[in-house]
Amino acid sequence: EGSPSWLCGDFFSMADVSLAVTLHRLKFLGLSQRFWGEGTRVNLETYYERVVQRPAFRRVLGHVNNILISAVLPVAFKVARKNAPMILGTTMLIGVLGGAAYLAFLYMKRRLTVSF
């Protein structure tokens, strides 16, 4: 098959950058298996593997997963910590109302079966 080429020929172009970023985002979201994993699209899989091996790619996007996680997790924990009393109170209220509705259902069911 010869030497591997990029989308627009023997050189890495902006088209490759665009596709590489899109593929990397899909992989980050856990969708790589759906679109090109497990041998479904072998050429796309080998293309992405070649892109990931490029030093420039590793330098720019290689640690983007760690960056996103370190940016998102502290905010998520802060929101959860701030809203914990409200979340706990709402959960307890729903549980109590659900339990009361279930007990009312059992009472009505027993009352209806006894009266016939």
UniProtKB/TrEMBL annotation:
This is Ganglioside-induced differentiation-associated protein 1-like. Residues 1-86 form the GST C-terminal domain. One of its GO terms (biological process) is mitochondrial fission. The chain crosses the membrane at residues 86-108. PANTHER family: GANGLIOSIDE-INDUCED DIFFERENTIATION-ASSOCIATED PROTEIN 1, GDAP1, ISOFORM A. SUPFAM superfamilies: GST C-terminal domain-like. The keyword Membrane applies. One of its GO terms (cellular component) is mitochondrial outer membrane. It comes from Notothenia coriiceps. Keywords: Membrane, Transmembrane, Transmembrane helix. The lineage of its organism: Eukaryota, Metazoa, Chordata, Craniata, Vertebrata. Gene3D superfamilies: 1.20.1050.10. Belongs to the GST superfamily.
